[in-house]
């Protein structure tokens, strides 16, 4: 991988493991964190989107496995979102935004991700409420389209919605988000590939590094894990990246 010097690659790899660990621990793939990290290390935009989607595939599937084996997954709650989000993410994968538009939209999404890590959007669990299917379909489509366009899985957006509406508790939302991120990332990559683009070789070099963090995060998160300090640091890093994207 020629993008980084040896010293920067060591630092990048360590940060990538931490990001994958934290996101996997709450059922996420980590795309918003990876994109923020790649922004800080000045990765080309052409590499950022496919790399984030690829890493999402591995880390989200690992996280989902751990939450699934703990019986937190609710299929009936997952399907309405997935039915609408998969084709939307596929369409979004075809879309290639110009660099300026991509950076601004991604920067705004990263602000949301950072605030979530700071605890601003971590809604408390509510008493269980029956899911509104039409509303869930609309939400799924919107998140899926945005996911495919930017190279995120959408879990960072879906999780707080599930909690805010009382459709799932924290562990259930983590399990649902894990699989939701996986299917959206797969659809987004498929659309990206069928749109005539290829996944850079450099993207595959990052997979085993992220998997290490993903396995550890999924294992600890599906049981009991909370580390406010690391989340605050990660939120700060993502916020810095978002500012760098919006105000280059």
UniProtKB/TrEMBL annotation:
Keywords: Cell membrane, Membrane, Transmembrane, Transmembrane helix. Pfam families: TauE (PF01925). It is found in: Cell membrane; Membrane. It comes from the Bacteria. One of its GO terms (cellular component) is plasma membrane. This is Probable membrane transporter protein. Belongs to the 4-toluene sulfonate uptake permease (TSUP) (TC 2.A.102) family. The chain crosses the membrane at residues 53-70, 77-95, 101-123, 135-168, 174-196, 203-223. It is a multi-pass membrane protein. It comes from Flavobacterium cupreum. InterPro entries: TM_pro_TauE-like, TSUP/Inactive_protease-like.
């Amino acid at each position: 991988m020629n993008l980084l010097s040896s010293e920067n690659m060591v630092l990048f790899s360590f940060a990538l493991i931490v990001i994958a660990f934290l996101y996997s621990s709450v059922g996420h793939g980590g795309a918003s964190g990876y994109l923020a990290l790649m922004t800080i290390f000045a990765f080309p935009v052409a590499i950022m989107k496919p790399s984030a989607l690829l890493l999402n595939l591995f880390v989200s599937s690992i996280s989902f496995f751990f939450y699934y084996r703990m019986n937190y997954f609710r299929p009936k709650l997952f399907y309405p979102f997935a039915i609408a989000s998969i084709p939307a993410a596929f369409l979004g994968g075809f879309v290639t935004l110009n660099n300026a538009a991509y950076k601004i939209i991604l920067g705004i999404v990263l602000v949301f991700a950072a605030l979530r890590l700071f605890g601003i959007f971590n809604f408390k669990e509510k008493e269980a409420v029956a899911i509104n299917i039409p509303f869930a379909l609309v939400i799924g489509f919107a998140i899926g389209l945005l996911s495919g366009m930017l190279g995120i899985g959408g879990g960072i957006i879906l999780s707080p919605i599930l909690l805010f509406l009382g459709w799932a508790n924290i562990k259930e939302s983590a399990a649902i988000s894990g699989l939701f991120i996986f299917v959206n990332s797969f659809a987004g990559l498929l659309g990206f590939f069928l749109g005539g683009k290829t996944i850079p070789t450099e993207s595959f070099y990052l997979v085993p590094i992220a998997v290490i963090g993903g396995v550890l995060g999924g294992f600890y998160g599906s049981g009991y894990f909370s580390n406010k300090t690391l989340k605050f640091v990660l939120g700060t890093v993502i916020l810095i990246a978002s500012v760098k994207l919006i105000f280059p």
